[in-house]
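hey
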């Protein structure tokens, strides 16, 4: 039996680590509680009806089917026995390892208010995306039926909390939905009258980008009908809206749909590693790793992706897909080097640039020393995201969908699904008067 490597998590870091072992003399096992790899950067398009879940998901067994040294297990890791070098699954089965790569990612962070999760869903999983899609579309359906002007206004008000790339993308997509996609679909409401608010606690949007690009992104959002509220800290979320603390005092937005894009925290496996090995965690629950991404006193345990606290040039390496991919590949090279008795230089993140799309023909980009926005940045965003899709078939399908949507302004995956798919039980009330065109 070869050197046994277990990889926990089939996201970008875990999958790219597994692929890097192709053709090598290792016994690799990838364990994930889902049977597919999810391309999270495009999850917001599922949430807004632009793409279907299957178009941004790839079955892990299919992706790794040609790697004869790699097997995939469907299961949830609930414990790590660092002394026995075994991972424990929810069904109590145990799997031994010689080297363990932990790439279990992150989840939503509500800053001490877990009760907000039910009222303001985040965007990390396929289920999150379809839940958000259902809430958005149901808001328009309910607004079409109601006679009450105040209730209709609240139904047609959307609040996105968090002004990072995910929040900006969600808000921009909502602007396009209300002003383009649905403009001819209803008879009693005018979707273009929807109010969309993007709330950010810092003093500008896209804090990771230069100020001039933040300003251009905000201007693009304004053109889509999105109103930004920067310097506003959310203090309460309930069924009727959002309460914020601003420089001028408390403010309130009455809204029936609130979406969360404000923060993330590490997966629970970080706490398990801390309990089992004594490794330190940061305030977000990320594991403090050494330069080679291993943990103190346990070099056989390597932590990568969003779960790892990696400091470079005095700053945290960003929790973005390119960083996770690079860490996954590095972990595989490190294990190979150790087997050969060779030393490896510490991990170094190569920042290839940042891109954020705001909507049709609108994006911002930082590539090296170059900073630009608009149509060129948008085209670059399209190309790079297609390039990183795992399956070629998915790339083709997404390209076709994007092309169709560009020329027709339509979003073909506008399905209301799930337990709350019906507007309400009982008889349908008579329709209110038709809204003005």
């Amino acid at each position: 039996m070869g050197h046994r490597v277990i990889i926990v998590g089939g996201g970008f870091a875990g999958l790219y680590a597994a692929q890097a072992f192709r053709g090598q003399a290792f016994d690799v096992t990838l364990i994930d509680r889902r049977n597919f790899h999810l391309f999270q950067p495009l999850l917001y398009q599922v949430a807004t009806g632009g793409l279907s879940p299957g178009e941004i998901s790839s079955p892990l067994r299919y992706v790794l089917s040609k790697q004869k040294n790699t097997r995939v297990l469907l299961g949830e890791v609930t414990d790590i026995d660092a002394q026995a070098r075994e991972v424990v699954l929810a069904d109590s089965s145990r799997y031994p390892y010689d080297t363990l790569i932990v790439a279990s990612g992150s989840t939503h962070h509500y800053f001490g208010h877990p009760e907000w999760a039910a009222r303001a869903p985040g965007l990390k999983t396929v289920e999150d995306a379809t839940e958000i899609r259902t809430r958005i579309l149901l808001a328009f359906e309910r607004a079409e039926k109601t006679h009450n002007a105040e209730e209709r206004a609240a139904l047609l008000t959307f609040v996105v909390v968090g002004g990072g790339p995910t929040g900006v993308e969600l808000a921009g997509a909502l602007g396009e939905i209300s002003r383009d996609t649905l403009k001819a679909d209803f008879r009693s409401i005018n979707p273009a009258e929807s109010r969309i608010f993007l709330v950010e606690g810092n003093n500008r949007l896209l804090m990771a980008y230069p100020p001039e690009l933040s300003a251009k992104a905000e201007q693009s959002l304004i053109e889509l009908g999105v109103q930004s509220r920067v310097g506003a800290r959310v203090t309460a979320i309930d069924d009727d809206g959002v309460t914020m603390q601003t420089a001028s005092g408390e403010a309130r937005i009455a809204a029936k749909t609130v979406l969360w894009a404000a923060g993330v925290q590490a997966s629970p496996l970080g706490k398990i590693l801390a309990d089992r090995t004594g490794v330190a965690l940061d305030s977000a629950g990320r594991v403090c790793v050494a330069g080679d991404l291993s943990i103190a006193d346990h070099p056989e345990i390597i932590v990568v992706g969003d779960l790892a606290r990696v400091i470079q040039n005095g700053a945290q390496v960003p929790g973005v897909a390119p960083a996770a991919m690079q860490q996954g590949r590095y972990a595989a090279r490190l294990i190979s080097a150790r087997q050969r008795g060779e030393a490896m230089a510490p991990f170094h993140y190569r920042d290839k640039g940042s891109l954020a799309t705001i909507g049709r023909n609108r994006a911002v980009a930082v590539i090296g020393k170059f900073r630009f926005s608009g149509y060129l940045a948008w085209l670059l965003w399209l190309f790079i995201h297609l390039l990183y899709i795992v399956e070629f078939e998915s790339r083709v399908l997404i390209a076709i969908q994007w092309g169709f949507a560009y020329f027709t302004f339509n979003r073909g995956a506008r399905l209301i699904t799930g337990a709350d798919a019906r507007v309400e039980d009982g008889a349908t009330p008579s329709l209110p008067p038709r809204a003005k065109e």
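The longest helix spans residues 126-145. The longest strand covers residues 26-32.
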